Amino acid sequence: MKLFVGLGNPGAKYARHRHNVGSMAVERIAERLDLGAWRRRFQGQTVEGNLGGERVLLLKPTTYMNDSGRSVGEAHRFLKIPVGDIYVFHDEIDLAPSKLKVKTGGGNAGHNGLRSITAHIGNDYNRVRIGVGHPGVKEVVPHYVLHDFAKVEYEWLDPLLDAIAESSRFLAHGESDRFLSQVARLIREQETASESKSPSEAPNTKPPSPKSASKPQQKGEGDGSLAGALKKWLTGRPGKE
Known about the structure:
By secondary structure, the protein is of the alpha/beta class. The chain has a single domain, classed as Rossmann fold, CATH 3.40.50.1470. It has helices spanning 21-32, 68-79, 112-121, 141-145, 154-172, 176-197, 210-214, 226-236; strands at 2-6, 39-41, 44-51, 54-61, 86-92, 100-104, 126-131. A seven-stranded mixed sheet has the order 2-3-4-1-5-7-6. Helix 2 runs parallel beside helix 3 and helix 5 (154-172) runs antiparallel to helix 6 (176-197).
């Protein structure tokens, strides 16, 4: 069995925050693969299903981000899931928006959720790093990640979450490279499909109306000349009674 963990903070207040993109990812997996209803378990919400022939437990800790390790550790110990079969989906400010990477072990880069998990189960689990971008100034990072995605960001976020869900079976088999390749392919296909639906800008080839085509142009009319301007002005003057 594999364990997919989606990091975030519980409650509607935080649901659309950048810090909750990991939780959003596992929610999309459960939704797209129709894995059923979530239930409370392991200090979180869980749903279990079959991904490409592999059993997978999806877990959203409800312990708040800073204590995610308590929930993950409990599931890890009770189900006896090897640390190498645990995949943690989380936000990554060191990756540009829409970028996706998978790595095993490594540093926590100041991410409190990862730090908590490492404290409870060690550091050799897998991280699915979902890029949300960096605000540019270290001091505003907490405000940035604890804030809703902007409306325009959903133009890349929704396709990415869909691609993650469609490709998650490869993670269930431990094939991180194939997972990343499939996500990239699905996004390219969607971009191509979107471009093909865009209206093409064709030159205006509408023929002139018969009226305008049959009327000969008089000297000084429509040529921008001084004579044309004077003629228009004289024509428009009221006549004497």
